[in-house]
Specification:
By secondary structure, this protein is an alpha/beta fold. It is built from 17 helices and 14 strands.
Amino acid sequence: MKFIYDFFIVLAFIICQPLRLMSNKINLSYKGRKKSFKILKKEVDPNEKNIWFHVSSLGEFEIVKPIIERLKERFDNIKIIVTFFSPSGYENSKKYRFADLKLYLPLDTSFNAKRFVSYVNPRIVIFIKNDIWSNYVNHLKQNDSVIYSLSSKFNKSQFYFKFYGYWFLKQLKKIDFFYVQDNNSKKILEKNSFKNVHISGDLRYTSVTNTLNKNKRILKVEKFINNESCFIAGSIWEKDIELIDKVIKSNIKSIIAPHDISINFINNLKKNYGDNCIKFSDLKNKYDFKKNILIIDSIGILKYLYRYADIAYVGGGMGNKGLHNILEPAVFSIPILIGKNFQGFSEAEDLTSLGGVFSVKNSDEFYKCFTELYESEELRNKSGKANSKYIIDNIKKNKKFIDSLTGKIHYL
């Protein structure tokens, strides 16, 4: 089975080569990985107390930020190394100052994994969610590194727990500690003879609370809203636009933050909403601020914008892209609307049952639900409180992992 795994890793690499010509993301990833070992050799001392975090992309990086910052506050003799699988994480992490080193994870071949582990000699390794690579795990165990899986989530339909996934299950058992998102994941692992399984919840709860506490203001947006009621649609795709279109075309101050900020997508929005909309980068004169629709054409500010919303919509749930982060608006105690496809997102499932999030199937349902929320301050407050309480309750679970990790570092 190891031979088959290694074969498919190499095959995936070969297949991606021609795709580099068509995808900037794949090309960035390829060029970044080519530099990784050169960076490691220059920047890392294997004799230091190196702690390695691996994340897949930007969302997972948001999970580890509060942990890294807590560790840097408590320990001045550790070195934090963060690796990324995708460009969305790495390219948006370059200015993050708390990690000592950020780079792409080399392809998971046995040769690369052995070389990486020898260069870094990590005392502690934290894989975020289920982005776990078998060759790296093997060489980390040979290196006597302590391995954590954090914010992972498991269900019985996953290949680990099928007859053909036995080899992968054995690899998974080489991890020392599992801090999973929910009780169902814990039960599944324990049923399969895993030890040291704990519930930490999703570390994004701590991350979004840090965003709340920063209290970052965006003055141009405040001037645009001008103390009026505001609707914010975040991380939206084309199918989401079809859902919310009627509200956007009303007289309510609306902010649209597309997931895709390519020129074509932005231009299509401008064409659709005409002279009543303005891009964030174009906000300049007094007439710009009097318009009703603001299109966010930059990355990194959406999570701070939600503080200005009376009602938020989070995209992704009308298509197959996956629901985007509803915790970012939830922390600001506001009601949230989402599309129909949210199954498998535990926070969305929980909050729809608690009354903080509302799922709609079509534009008519969206408009009806939005109108009810817009016209009832009592309903908005009740929904917002359900969201913020849910986050506070989950932060208590996050503390278990952080306490365990800091305890291990004390013994390095």
